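Protein in question kept underneath.
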Amino acid sequence: QVQLVESGGGLVQPGGSLRLSCAASGSTFSRYAMGWFRQAPGKEREIVAGIRWSSGSTYYANSVKGRFTISRDNAKNAVYLQMNSLNPDDTAVYYCAATQTLRFGVGGADDYDYWGQGTQVTVSS
């Protein structure tokens, strides 16, 4: 049984920063990629950032390029999302995910097999 647990969400003012963490627990597993997704009310879940586990190659949505940074820690089976210069449009539930089946790239939501419970990020004055 593989469980992904997110942490680090909260309320932050525009221009502020948050660091989200996602750690696997319960067992070890191989994976091709891990990613961060977000879902705002009334909108579909979208990929924010992804990382190929072996190569470290990263992907960022255009809306977060230059502001967010995804990173991984192989020893801890963990992935992180550093979010800077946050604005109200970043408000959403953020989910960590992992895929064992996607052989190329970072894909989209349908390509991921394991999901965390989500952590709320609210950017407001």
Remarks:
- The chain has a mean pLDDT of 93.
- The two ends are 40 Å apart (CA to CA).
- DSSP finds no helices and eleven strands in the chain.
- The longest strand covers residues 18-25.
